[in-house]
Amino acid sequence: RTNDFAQRFNYTQIFGPHAVQVTGTQNVIKRYGVNGSEFDKQAGKKVKETAISMEQAILYGKKAIGTASLGRTMDGLISQITTNVDSSTTTLTAGKVLDQLQAVYDLGGSVDRVVTGSKQKRVLSASNSSDLFIKQSESSTGQVIDQIISDFGNPTILLNRWCRVSDLF
User: Fold this and answer.
1) pLDDT tens track for 48-97
2) What is the mean pLDDT of the chain?
3) What 8-state DSSP symbol labels residue 41?
4) How far apart are the C-alpha atoms of 164 and 156, rounded to whole Å?
5) What integer pLDDT is reported at residue 1 of this predicted model?
6) Running DSSP on this structure, what letter comes out for residue 136?
7) What is the rounded distance in angstroms from the CA atom of residue 151 to the CA atom of residue 10?
8) What is the dihedral of CA 115, 86, 75, 42, to 10 degrees?
9) Is the separation of the CB atoms in 132 and 101 below 8 Å?
C-alpha cells in the first residue's frame, strides 16, 4: 500500500507585488471622510484585493508550474481533497453533513470549520434536524446555524463569499 500523502505536493504561489502610486499632491490633500493619506487608502485597497485572490486560490486554485512569463499557481482545496468527498448528494441535509464528519473522524481527522457558499448556508440554517443545536435569541426572529454540535467534533460554519454557492468544505 502506498502512502497517498507522500505523493502529494503543491507549488508556492506568489501574490503580488502590487504597486501603489499616488502623486505627492494627492497624498497631502485632506479629503472629507478619508482618514490617513491617499497612499494609505490605495494600499488598503491592494491588500484587500490580494486577500481575495489568496482566498480564491485556497479554495479553487489549480496547480501549475508556471513559465518564464507566468508565475506558478497552487492547488486549492477542491483539488487537494480526494477522500471524504460526496459529489453524488444533490440535496444537502444535516444527516449528510454528519455522515461526512463521521467519515473524516474514522480516517483520523478532525473538523473544526465548515466553509460554505450562500445556498448551502441557507440549507443548514433552515434545517430542523434534531441533530443540530440551535440557540434562539429572545430579541430576534429567524434561525441561523453557526456551529454543528456532533459526536465527531463541533465545527463552526463559515459563510464564504468566494465559495461557490453549491459547495461545502
Assistant:
1) 999 999 999 999 999 999 898 888 999 998 888 877 788 776 788 888 88
2) 84
3) H
4) 18
5) 44
6) P
7) 33
8) -30
9) no
State CA 12 to chain mean position distance: 18
Cβ contacts of 153 within 8 Å, gap of 6 or more: 101, 105, 110, 111, 112
Please tell me the distance from the alpha carbon of residue 103 to that of residue 97, in angstroms, as a whole number: 10
Reading the block at residue 151, the C-alpha cell is 459526536
For residue range 116-145, what is the model confidence (pLDDT) as tens digits? 999 988 888 887 655 555 555 566 666 677
Residue with cell 433552515: 126
Phi, psi angles (nearest 5°) of residue 2: -85, 155
- Say which residue the cell 440535496 belongs to: 91
pLDDT digit string, tens, across residues 1-13: 445 555 678 888 9
Distances (CA, A) of 147 to 95, 107, 151, 154, 156: 15, 22, 13, 6, 4
State the pLDDT at residue 9: 83
Q: Global pTM?
A: 0.71
Beta strand ranges found along 77-127 (DSSP E): 113-116
**Which amino acid is it at 63?**
K
φ/ψ (deg, to 5) at 26: -60, -35
Return the number of other C-beta atoms located less than 10 Å from residue 1's C-beta: 3
